[in-house]
Backbone:
């Protein structure tokens, strides 16, 4: 689909759905139902993606193999568990624009963020600061502050929090660059989101990485809201590391095993400090159980434990769908869906809310964040009670994301009609 003049009215939405080459993917997901048995308007894939119908089969195979083989399933399961996590490597690399050696699926997001900081946040007396967004997700804030304290520094003097200009909702790229230039030689690590969870702002990761490296800083991204939402080119953009969870846009299910990227330039950095576990040890000798840790090259060398197969199995169901749909096609549809949502919201002319997500499609993903002037929390609850699923972030943000894999243009037009009428009452 190419550039489109959006129009008001359901006919337009229906026509858009008819010519949407990805429309049939919706049938491959369970759409939550209202008590009356109708499909919910589910616009919450930024928080928890929907369940692929195939997930149950992927999972059942593992339970069956476990029942049949017990421990021998490591070698004799239909897809043996020993190398099972490898089944996700190619598709994960494709998803985030990395080489296969640069990615691994393991742990959960905040754990991976800590593991990455153990290796890549190496503060010195001169260079000890971490840059994050003042509006970063709380877990990221807690993680970076605890790392700063762990190294004997004080967040009051070692944390630089990027704040939007007064009266503005999101950060200007040029302000980020200026801070990096100004304080570059004190900054050890720049750790920003790919897409901010609250505002929906997508950062120019290539530009930030370039500015950071020019100033001698390590650069890492939290891609929780970017993976499966935006096409990424991590290898080319060149950040040192990236971490993401798999239960938001990636539909891996609640608490699903997460992802981690370590740039190829660190693949052989065996002398980097790191926390070690047996699953990161050289495969050739792992089961000889030698006393000394010899990390595997690449991202694999940061693994700690043997991975949760049942969680990986569910994630595979979704990653197979991503592979089929392709990130480029998903993004093309996503830009239309979100552009249409924005168009319809603007068209209501309501003064009761405003969209705070950047208006340029390049600076956002699927999500729009809507600032609600009054009683927003109650509004969000009321909408949920009526099967319209978005979510609420204090103090005044209502978040919705039409997800190109399973949302339709018709979902968007229905949502705006119901939202606009709910906010009036
Ligand atoms: C969702 C999200 C998290 C959640 O962390 P978990 O370790 O998966 O519980 C952390 N950071 C960001 C930016 C998120 O969006």
Residues:
């Amino acid at each position: 689909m190419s550039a489109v003049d959006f129009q008001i009215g359901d006919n337009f939405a229906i026509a858009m759905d008819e010519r949407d080459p990805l429309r049939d993917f919706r049938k491959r997901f369970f759409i939550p139902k209202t008590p009356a048995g109708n499909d919910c308007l589910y616009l919450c894939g930024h928080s928890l993606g929907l369940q692929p119908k195939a997930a149950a089969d992927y999972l059942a195979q593992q339970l069956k193999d476990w029942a049949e083989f017990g421990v021998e399933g490591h070698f004799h399961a239909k897809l043996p568990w020993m190398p099972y996590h490898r089944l996700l490597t190619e598709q994960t690399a494709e998803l985030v624009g990395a080489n296969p050696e640069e990615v691994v699926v393991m742990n959960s997001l905040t754990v991976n963020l800590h593991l990455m900081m153990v290796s890549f946040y190496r503060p010195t007396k001169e260079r000890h600061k971490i840059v994050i967004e003042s509006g970063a997700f709380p877990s990221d804030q807690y993680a970076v502050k605890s790392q700063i304290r762990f190294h004997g520094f004080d967040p009051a003097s070692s944390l630089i929090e990027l704040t939007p200009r007064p009266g503005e909702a999101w950060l200007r790229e040029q302000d980020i660059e200026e801070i990096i230039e100004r304080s570059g030689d004190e900054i050890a690590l720049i750790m920003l989101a790919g897409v901010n969870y609250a505002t929906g702002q997508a950062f120019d990761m290539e530009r930030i990485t370039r500015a950071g490296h020019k100033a001698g800083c390590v650069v890492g991204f939290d891609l929780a809201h970017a993976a499966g939402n935006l096409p990424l080119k991590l290898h080319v953009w060149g950040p040192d590391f990236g971490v993401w969870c798999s239960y938001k846009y990636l539909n891996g299910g609640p608490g699903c095993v997460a992802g981690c990227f370590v740039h190829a330039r660190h693949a052989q950095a065996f002398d980097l400090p790191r926390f070690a576990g047996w699953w990161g040890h050289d495969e050739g000798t792992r089961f000889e159980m030698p006393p000394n840790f010899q990390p595997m090259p690449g991202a694999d060398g940061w693994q700690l434990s043997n991975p949760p197969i049942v969680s990986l199995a569910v994630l595979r169901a979704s990653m197979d769908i991503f592979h089929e749909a392709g990130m480029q096609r998903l993004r093309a549809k996503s830009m239309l869906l979100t552009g249409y949502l924005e168009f319809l919201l603007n068209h209501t002319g309501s003064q009761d809310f405003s969209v705070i997500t950047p208006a340029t499609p390049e600076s956002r993903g699927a999500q729009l964040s809507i600032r609600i002037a009054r009683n927003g929390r109650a509004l969000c609850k009321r909408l949920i009670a009526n099967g319209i699923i978005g979510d609420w972030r204090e103090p005044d943000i209502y978040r919705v994301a039409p997800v190109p894999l399973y949302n339709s243009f018709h979902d968007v037009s229905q949502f705006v009609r119901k939202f606009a009428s709910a906010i009036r009452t």
Summary: Residues 10-30+326-424 form a domain with the Aspartate Aminotransferase, domain 1 fold (CATH 3.90.1150.10).
